[in-house]
Amino acid sequence: MEKELLFITVIGEDKKGIVAKISMLLYECNINIEDISQKIMDSYFVMTMLVNMKESEYKLEKVRKELEKIGKELQLKIQIQHENIFKMMHRV
After folding, report:
1. Residue 31's closest CA among 2, 1, 9, 63?
2. What CATH number labels 5-89?
3. What b/e readout covers 31-44, taking b as 16+ CB neighbours within 10 angstroms?
């Protein structure tokens, strides 16, 4: 089965509910979390997610707007980008 992979990065002050809010949105959009890494770095929350939106009926722009709403609500910087763009930017 082919995948449509995207990277989500989240950076901001650590607070309760960040992972829950973002993963609930992904669940509601039928987007599967393939991999997740998160840590606290000097009181900053840093998370990267690799997600598969192959089965989602939502467009990337809709998901981006919903993540921006969460970012504003929780005062976080949230970015989402398609795997192909990520690969092109990080080619050697």
Report:
1. 63
2. 3.30.70.260
3. beeeeeeeeeeeee
* First and final C-alpha spacing in the chain: 28
Tokens for 41, please give them.
């770095």
> pLDDT digit string (tens) for 13-68?
999 999 999 999 999 999 999 999 999 999 899 999 999 999 999 999 999 999 99
- Domain residue ranges in the chain: 5-89
Task: Tell whether the model's pLDDT for residue 90 goes beyond 80.
Answer: no
The CB-based long-range contact list for 83-89 (8 Å cut-off, 24+ gap) reads 83/4, 83/5, 83/6, 83/7, 83/50, 86/7
| Structure tokens that stand for 74 in this block | 């929780």
pTM for the model stands at: 0.87
